[in-house]
Amino acid sequence: MEHKTKITIGDYVQFSYRKNPNLQLTGYVVSVLQNTIVVDDVRQVVKHGCYNKVIHKLIKNNVS
To answer: What's the half-sphere exposure (Cβ side, CA atoms, 13 Å) at 9?
Structure first.
């Protein structure tokens, strides 16, 4: 299964927190691996296909 969204380091993604799937987290990608990505300071490991790419401008507009 190949993931279709192209993710690079520095992109923002939204994903479910593994200990509470109802909680949606947003962070930036610090590493792209074969089957997963690593997201920001707390080093959340997220499988490909389990996140959505977020447009950075939308994040800035929503934080007021």
So the answer is: 4
Query: Domains of the chain: which residue ranges?
Result: 12-62
In angstroms, the CA 24 to CA 15 distance is 6
| pLDDT per residue as tens digits for the range 3-27 | 566 899 999 999 999 899 999 999 9
The DSSP line for 10-54 is T-EEEEEETTEEEEEEEEEEEEE-SSEEEETTTTEEEETTSEEEE
The C-alpha atoms of residue 54 and residue 25 are separated, in whole angstroms, by 11
Task: Work out the average pLDDT over 28-55.
Answer: 91
